[in-house]
Write a structure and sequence with these properties.
The longest helix is centred in the middle third of the chain and has 14 residues. By secondary structure, the chain is an all-alpha fold. It is elongated and about 55 Å long. The protein is built from four helices and no strands. It has a single domain, classed as lambda repressor-like DNA-binding domains (434 Repressor (Amino-terminal Domain)). Helix content is about 50%, strand content about 0%. It starts with a helix and ends in a 14-residue tail after the last helix. Helix 1 packs across helix 2 and helix 1 crosses helix 3.
Length: about 70
């Protein structure tokens, strides 16, 4: 089963934006909250979906090539 941010939210009892901020190292998250969320992320082995991150504007190592005969 692929984990999502919603799974982390449910375990930590925080908002989606807080989990997102932890994943993106935003300084607006308190140290205690960051540690709690990061602990759950590490325990579950959560990996952000790279395709979703690419759609949000984050850089991605994926290259697409389109060619026409």
């Amino acid at each position: 089963m692929k984990l999502t941010i919603k799974d982390i939210v449910a375990r930590c009892n925080v908002g989606k934006s807080t989990v997102s901020r932890v994943l993106n190292n935003d300084p607006k998250v308190s140290v205690q909250t960051r540690e709690r969320v990061q602990t759950v992320i590490d325990e579950l082995g959560f990996q952000p979906n790279q395709s979703a991150r690419a759609m949000r504007g984050a850089s991605s190592p994926v290259v697409g090539i389109i060619f026409h005969r």
